[in-house]
Design a protein that fits this description.
single chain, 70 residues, alpha+beta, 60s Ribosomal Protein L30, Chain: A, three-stranded mixed beta sheet, 3 strands, globular
């Protein structure tokens, strides 16, 4: 997520995350995701969809897809 925030900053001052799609292998990580959102963004938070999946490539536990307004 920190890489995502850094990339947004590199896209320019008007770059804004407007929607996240998050894939979680362990839905028990959902509260941690909420805490992370609160530390990386200020309200209003980006729209978000969270999807529980059985597995992700390379053994990843989370995958994030972001839509930016530039």
């Amino acid at each position: 997520m920190r890489n995502l925030v850094a990339l947004c900053g590199a896209a320019g001052e008007c770059a804004e995350v407007v929607k996240l799609t998050v894939y979680l292998v362990q839905m028990s990580d959902y509260p941690v995701l909420n805490e992370l959102m609160e530390t990386l963004w200020q309200p209003p938070y980006p729209a978000r969809a969270v999807v529980g999946v059985r597995e992700l490539p390379r053994g990843a536990l989370i995958e994030v897809e972001a839509v930016l307004f530039i």
